[in-house]
Amino acid sequence: xxxxxxxxxxxxxxxxxxxxxxxxxxxxxxxxxxxxxxxxxxxxxxxxxxxxxxxxxxxxxxxxxxxxxxxxxxxxxxxxxxxxxxxxxxxxxxxxxxxxxxxxxxxxxxxxxxxxxxxxxxxxxxxxxxxxxxxxxxxxxxxxxxxxxxxxxxxxxxxxxxxxxxxxxxxxxxxxxxxxxxxxxxxxxxxxxxxxxxxxxxxxxxxxxxxxxxxxxxxxxxxxxxxxxxxxxxxxxxxxxxxxxxxx
Length: 248
Hints:
Blueprint: H1 22-35, E1 42-46, H2 54-57, E2 61-64, H3 70-80, E3 85-91, H4 92-98, H5 100-108, E4 114-119, H6 150-153, H7 159-163, E5 170-175, H8 179-197, E6 203-208, H9 212-215, H10 219-233, E7 237-241
Parallel strand pairs: 1-2, 1-3, 3-4, 4-6, 5-6
Antiparallel strand pairs: 5-7
């Protein structure tokens, strides 16, 4: 029987809201890095947003880039320190909206970094505005008070399908609403770090994650929303794997 314990890399609690998925994702990152023995060569890049808290919680080297520029900062680190394991922990607003160019060009260049993108369908840290890439039709936010309308605000975009057109190493999407999916998501995250360890190319793992505070739901309701609504728009699974199969 497996024995679960706190990863040694987690040195204190972080300031995430109750029910937020960032904390679970942060732990999966720490577990994966420790299991691969990479903790002494990690440089993490976080956004000036919710993931920023992880630099207080994890005993890794961190750089906080300007909002939306994580992929560019991580690219720069990897170029000058190719011997390190460089990862991004950032939200969908950072990675797919304000930082869409940076993420897309890191993928186009197949930069050997590992990106973990938290898809909670909203700009969380700045108060809960609509995210053009991931807010669902009908979802209410500070900037879509009556619900997102396709006629004026367009449709959300499955970025993994879009990035599948690029020659990248690994694209996958997981969720964290129950233990089964947490375990699967960890496999994806660990695979992203294995690819970098093995000198392979760009890996992006997206995680469907709850934001109870800005969704104005309880944590249980937020996880049910992901299971019943978000997952239908953003299907789970592996989209690109050069060494295996894809379902995207």
